[in-house]
Specification:
about 80 residues; alpha+beta; three-stranded antiparallel beta sheet
């Protein structure tokens, strides 16, 4: 299995997501529940899980948004 295949199929719990983003588990849960990060519930207690590719997508969207804001801020300065 290649790195990209492994990353695509890895399932993360909210503690993993929180650790990778440097946030708290409640904040990670809120991001998933609000649909910012696409996740799914599994098990009787409805524990949230996130595919690593979806976390990668979220991170890329946030990077793109930051780059766009910088571009807009730079355009306003001129």
């Amino acid at each position: 299995m290649t790195d990209s295949q492994e990353r695509r199929t890895r399932i993360l719990n909210l503690a993993d997501v929180a650790e990778m983003l440097g946030i708290t588990v409640p904040t990670a849960r809120t991001l998933v529940q609000q649909g910012e990060i696409i996740g799914f519930q599994i098990g009787g207690r409805g524990m949230w899980r996130v595919e690593s590719v979806e976390l990668d997508n979220y991170i890329q969207r946030k990077k793109d948004e930051a780059a766009q804001r910088r571009k807009e801020d730079h355009a306003e300065v001129k």
